[in-house]
Amino acid sequence: MKRTLKNCLIAACWLLLWQLGAMAVGSPVLLPSPWETAKAFVALAGTGFFWKTAGATLLRVAAGFLLGMAAGAALGILTAFSRLADDFLAPIRGIIKATPVTSFIILVWLWLTTTLTPVFIAFLMVTPIAWANVREGILAVDAQLLEMAEVFRLPRAKKLRHVYLPSVLPQWLAACTTGFGFAWKSGVAAEVIARPALSIGRNLYESKLYLNTEELFAWTAMVVLLSMLLERLLVRAMRRIRK
Amino acid sequence: MIELAHVHCIYGEKTPIRDLTLILPDVGVVGVFGASGAGKTTLLRLLAGLLQPTSGTIEGLAGKRISMVFQEDRLLPWLTAAENVALVRDESEADARALLAVLALSAEADQLPRALSGGMQRRVALARALNFGGDVLLLDEPFKGLDAALCAEAAAVVRGRFPLTVIATHDRGEAEALGMTMALTVEPGGMWRIEE
Fold first, then answer.
1. Domain end (from B89, B115, B132)
2. Chain A residues within 8 A of B132 when measuring between CB atoms
3. Structural domain span for residue B196
4. Helix H or strand E segment including B15
5. Residue B14's pLDDT is what?
6. Is the interface score ipTM higher than 0.90?
7. Which of A60, A111, A209, B125 is the Cys-Cys partner for B73 at CB 3.0 to 4.6 Å?
8. Residue A145: other Cβ atoms inside 10 A
9. Which residues contact A44 (CB under 8 A, 6 or more apart)?
10. CATH code for residues A32-242
């Protein structure tokens, strides 16, 4: 109860600061007030279009995220067990990590459809995270346990299930939470540039284009709320799996 | 017979085993004694096939099923005591529980290793090696952390279960409790002395 009260007070403080900032700027086009944003949000939330759009964006991000987690796990396994594959693929990992996401978005947009671009970008951002975590998880497996498995001639499947998987799973789950945040932000950024029909990104872009700043804030609030909600759900799911 | 001929084993910067020539019988209990770092564990690891000699040969291990209690317990922390024991042999859950019972661990069978004391974990590792079975049992300080009574009980359980048992220990009494038939002592200079 005390904690809830404290959190409410903190939120109220920030809203007040926002309100003061909006009053100081004095132009809703540059900085709409919390009240104007809330009005725009409620108006948007009342339309079916808003939810369809959010659903479509979510679907794209989720697809990219899931594909990225799977591909990252596969690459992590491959590069942990094969030195040659690790050396061969290391430059790719380095390039993906170092290239600005916008360069990728523009490049990928040339190759893929507008709908697939955000999916691929989310996939591209998540893959190296899952890849690095799974690879490190496998390399960190206790050598003494591997020797034990060797002496007792554990078949490959048993070794994977009982020695490798429990060692790697926590790392992979950590990659899930970090990766989801990346997928969400980069996916929406890709939508802003590629502008597929029915996407939060396209609406963000158009709100800015028509100087409809309240709506821009309302869509952004939607992104933030969805992100927080999904991350919380994900963390809860992870806890379950860990148990 | 297991024959070691002019075996050198160098790893890291130490030379724990230099020019060891030795014949181990197929049946019996061999006690391996010596100071810490003298090469007892290295000999066991060579016999387990976990190390290869840097020179020399080891013959007579091919086709043998070799079980081991390591110097560390090496239990999987995410499996219960019974699961750890049953892991090494298919469909041996009932045998695993029976072995744990014989080693006075019935009540702990469904607990994770972290909930067990050091001595209990040691007995789980012992039960696992017994459940694996085979021709040779390698024991590296197997009764570490057990009091005299438990040690005697555990030795009675192990005794006679494997054709050949090799035990590395500081305590000659432990090897004798298993029915030692041959003693191997590493002298401080790295010389191996055999008593039969």
1. B132
2. 152
3. 25-53+60-65+134-196
4. strand B14-24
5. 65
6. yes
7. B125
8. 20
9. A50, A215, A218, A219, A222
10. 1.10.3720.10
